[in-house]
Specification:
single chain; about 500 residues; alpha+beta; 3 domains; 7-stranded antiparallel sheet; 3-stranded antiparallel sheet; 15 helices; disordered N terminus
Length: about 500
């Protein structure tokens, strides 16, 4: 059974892809895997370590199965190499190199996977690759992407749950993503964000829409539903679990059954969504037979597949080579030394609060006093960054779960320190001995930066310009009570006295 076929091509006397030509295409794909083996390994590592992205193993078999279902197009459409596609390959390679310099794994992975359909376009041509567009683009779902949606999904789920519980008539006291009911306390954490449901739903929704509908409008509508429905369903799931716990006096939905109820509810919602979607299913369009009165298209002129495949691989090989040259030029073997003697005052002890970051090259930390209250300073310095040592990473957290510090809220702020504007992030964390207000930002290529995306671009620029990838995370924290302005005044006083010395300390470390 074929879909999206092109009846006008039926009966064309175009040549099949011969075994040597198929061998050329397969060899080109294998060479691409070898050239970017590090990126492939990073994807497999995430599939292995995260249940959220374990579906990545199924994407390639599904894509191959979809191509097999459309195998008849190889007999209908002649391969006609597309030389302009080499420019698309170059764009993907340039994006991969830029992401590599900034240590942005997900962009590297997307750029690599996008090279596969671009390579197919170059070798097979626009018409044949276009007939296989969805199976080729479906490979993009193999990229483990979605962690960026966790914070907004947590906030939405907390908003939805608290509003629904209050609408039920139960009083709720909320503190960030944590809230208290008369029967117990609840917290919306990463596992409650629904990101797994969302990723699963979008992947299955796209596949279902492709297989079930011919109309573009129906496909877009169903895919949109596969985005919206799991988000709403996750809010309902969280509300349901809280209500089960509340009505059972916390006897139910507080252990393993918490997860079981969630997956059963999500499975039911997904079944209903696909069941309803089946009522608008469109039958496949049967291709015209060879005997139909359809004029066969003129055969495209033969072009050398080997030449375009070799040229494509040379384009693909250019970027890993440039990356190796950049690494060698930017590598700094000198150890990092952080000298805290420039700071005003001496530390009175170790910080009571500490973040959870990947191990840096050097650390400067201590408890100081400003405006009569304790201020904890943590400075983490990174050099020669890699997958296991990154300044900006989704695994670096201000709320240190290992030390029982939980995230409460976070927002951007623009402070004035000694007449200069300083952009930073303000995060409130709840620890075992009370709440802390944390101001945090990064120092990259000599600049203070509060936005992680801009930080990555700055890091990539510095590395590609052979200035190295040195960077640091700067965090100051102080206990906070009911009046956050008191805590902010203490942090501001500490930075008034120490921001310039901190910058001098970082510059000195960079020069050695």
């Amino acid at each position: 059974m074929l879909m999206n076929d092109q009846p006008a091509l039926a009966g064309a006397a175009s040549p099949r892809l011969s075994v040597p030509r198929i061998a050329i295409l397969v060899a080109a794909l294998l060479a691409l895997l070898v050239l970017y083996r590090g990126t492939v390994a990073s994807m497999v590592s995430v599939w292995n370590s995260s249940e959220t992205f374990a579906h990545g193993y199924a994407i390639l078999p599904i894509s191959l199965w979809l191509i097999w279902r459309r195998r008849e197009v190889f007999t209908r459409i002649p391969a006609a190499p597309c030389w302009p596609a080499l420019g698309l390959l170059a764009l993907c390679g340039g994006a991969w190199l830029l992401a590599r310099a900034g240590e942005v794994q997900v962009v590297m992975q997307y750029a690599f996977v996008a090279m596969i359909p671009a390579l197919a376009l170059a070798v097979l041509g626009r018409r044949l690759a276009g007939a296989l567009a969805f199976p080729l683009l479906f490979l993009l779902f193999a990229v483990p992407f979605g962690e960026v949606f966790v914070p907004p999904l947590i906030n939405f789920t907390a908003d939805f749950t608290v509003a629904a519980v209050r609408a039920t008539g139960i009083p709720v006291l909320r503190n960030g993503t944590m809230f208290e009911l008369p029967t117990g306390n609840w917290s919306v954490v990463e596992a409650c964000s629904g990101v797994r449901y969302l990723i699963s739903s979008i992947t299955l929704g796209c596949l279902y829409a492709y297989l079930s509908y011919r109309s573009t409008a129906r496909r877009i509508l169903f895919i949109a539903l596969s985005v919206v429905v799991p988000v709403i369903a996750n809010g309902l799931r969280a509300y349901m679990i809280v209500m089960i716990g509340h009505t059972s006096d916390m006897a139910l939905a507080t252990g393993v059954d918490h997860l079981i109820y969630g997956w059963l509810f999500f499975g039911l919602v997904m079944f209903i969504m696909f069941w309803i979607g089946s009522y608008w299913r469109e039958e496949d369009v049967a291709p015209a037979t060879a005997g139909a009165a359809v004029e066969a298209p003129a055969a495209l002129p033969a072009r050398p597949l080997t030449a375009v495949a070799v040229a494509a691989l040379l384009v693909c090989a250019l970027w890993p080579a440039l990356g190796a040259v950049s690494d060698k030029a930017a590598h700094n073997p000198a150890p990092v030394r952080l000298d805290g003697t420039r700071l005003a005052g001496t530390p009175a002890g170790v910080p009571a609060w500490s973040p959870e970051f990947l191990a840096p090259d050097a650390t400067l930390a201590g408890r100081y006093t400003a405006a009569g209250v304790p201020v904890d300073l943590t400075l983490l310095y990174y050099r020669n960054q890699g997958p296991d040592k990154r300044l900006i990473s989704s695994v670096n957290r201000v709320d240190n779960r290992k030390a029982r510090f939980q995230h409460v809220s976070s927002e951007g702020r623009l402070e004035t320190i000694r007449g200069e504007k300083l952009a930073l992030r303000e995060t409130r964390v709840k620890g075992p001995d009370g709440n802390y207000l944390v101001w945090h930002w990064t120092w990259i290529d000599g600049q203070f930066i509060a936005n992680d995306y801009l930080g990555k671009l700055r890091q990539a620029q510095a590395k590609l310009m052979m200035r190295g990838d040195d960077g640091a995370a700067i965090m100051v924290a102080t206990p906070v009570g009911d009046d956050p302005d008191t805590a902010r005044a203490a942090l501001r006083a500490f930075l008034d006295a120490n921001l310039a010395p901190l910058q001098a300390t970082l510059e000195a470390a960079r020069e050695h």
